[in-house]
Amino acid sequence: MKELLLGNEAVARGAWEAGVNVVSSYPGTPSTEITEVMAKYNEVFCEWAPNEKVAAEVAIGAAVAGARSMCCMKHVGLNVAADPLFTVAYTGVNGGLVIVVADDPGMHSSQNEQDSRYYALSAHVPMLEPADAQECKDFTKKAFEISEKFDTPVILRLTTRIAHARSLAELSDRKEQGKKPYKKDTMKYVMMPGMAKKRHIIVDERTAKLREFAEDASSGVNAVEYKDKKLGIITSGISYQYTKEVFPDASILKIGMVHPLPDKLIREFAESVDELLVIEELEPFIENYIRQMGITKVEGKKYFTNQGELNTTIIRKAYKGETPDSAQAAEAVEAPARPPVLCPGCPHRGVFYVLSNMKVRVSGDIGCYTLGAMKPYEAVDTCICMGASVSMAHGMNMADAQFGEKLPTVAVIGDSTFMHSGITGLIDIVYNKGTSTVIILDNSITGMTGHQQNPTTGHTIKGEEAPAVNLVKLAEAVGVKRVRVEDPFDMKKFRAAVKEEIEADEPSVIIAQRPCALLKSVKYGAPVDINSEKCRKCGACMKLGCPAIYCEDGVYKIDKSICLGCGLCEQMCAFGAIGKEE
């Protein structure tokens, strides 16, 4: 039976068919749907971990115990999981271990566009890269087989266009694998220097065996498609789909295992074609490798950018100098800019309006609330990575103190991100006698990636009730004496709270507690309306940046179809023109 699947759905299906037993992940676009789909299979233990490092360690533990396991994350999540990744490459596994990483060329929802292929190279682990949903499913199953055959973790690399594109995939039944016997083996699994030195030798021997495997046509990971040998193209992943469309007559070497690369296969292909071209997104990973082999006739980034995504139009224009008529027509249209905005009723809106008006320096973080950097608030000063807001605020305050200054500064971090990597930063502030104020935006969900549960919500990924972390007690437990819970919809009181805490000469935590307006259980009340007779057209309500408020022909109005009745705009109006209809 065939089914139209997202690449992410196909990965989940492939893992289920392969008999996976344990899946632990942290949500991150474009990888999130893999684990959400995985949670629907009752045969699998599935969880959202607090962060990617924990997720990887859970999966590693399950694999060492003898069960097939998987963890999924986006590319920047692999940075967080890099510590266990590099060492499990030495220890090897018992049951199969697959690590799925989804890169985001073009940065559709990310703060950088790193190329995760270099992690496979640096960590000395094999990496597979599928080119459609069928390969997502098949390569996931193959990854488990390779993992167990070669005693290694395997990375499955997706990109946004593969993860979020649909294509047909042939479905199969689940094949239970059972649990491999656990055997205590200190020399294999305890990575003290003496053991690690011996394991490094094994890792290098394993890489050589994997390269031989990649050369074998029966492995099914790399394929040669010979047509016109005037032009030969080496490509992988989504770039293969673009290549097939732009160069229907060219010979193609399709790379499915991007590390280790198949030397003999590449050399044979290069010798058989007149011109050799590499088409790949982001860095010249394959191209550089081919040059290091001594093959000088190869070209790639001479034509194609290492920034953002490729597509058929970009490839055709860069290499052939052609622009299709359809692309020319599209380029001629000047579409209005549509920057992302906080949703109507978002509890973060009041926080950023207050912070913006107070001219407070804001150390920001990763989440919906990063939009606080945008107009009309322009409140967020920095955003680096998960959890950095807390540590950076401490660094800012300590730098100021070295010069006898105290600039009003707060860290802003979401509840899920605080669980991910904000706690240690808060401990650092307390331990090192800092004075920073941390605002935890507790909206009762992991909002940015589509409403996933986290340790503060009281539910697991499967919707089962679970103990919820008490943020107040947690902050107090690490030594913060000034902890308060405030309603971000009460802007006057929230402003007073911020002012009081940033003036205090000790660490403080403000928990801005309001659930996400888009949660099905949340009802803030009836929509509000503007009384045109009372309205003085001052435009104060527009300063909130709420999408429900607009001005038409000089008249201020509220779109009641999207207004959620949060009441923030009522507080903005000094003339009582905004309120619920009688």
Number of helices: 20
Beta-strand portion reads 15-25%
Mean pLDDT, to the nearest integer, reads 95
Helix content: 25-40%
Return Rg in Å.
27 Å
Describe the global form: globular
The end-to-end distance, rounded to whole angstroms, is: 57 Å
The unreliable regions are: none
Q: What summary fits the major beta sheet?
A: 7 strands, mixed
In which order are the strands of the major sheet placed? 3-2-4-5-7-6-12
- Structural category: alpha/beta
According to DSSP, the number of beta strands is: 24
Polypeptide structure, described:
The chain has 582 residues and is α/β, with parallel strands linked by helices. Helix content is 37%, strand content 19%. It is built from 20 helices and 24 strands. Strands 3-2-4-5-7-6-12 form a 7-stranded mixed sheet, with helices on both faces. A 6-stranded parallel sheet has the order 16-15-17-18-20-19, sandwiched between helices. Helix 1 (7-17) packs across helix 6, helix 3 (52-65) packs parallel to helix 4 (75-91) and helix 16 (388-402) runs parallel beside helix 17 (415-431). The longest helix is centred in the middle third of the chain and has 23 residues, at 193-215.
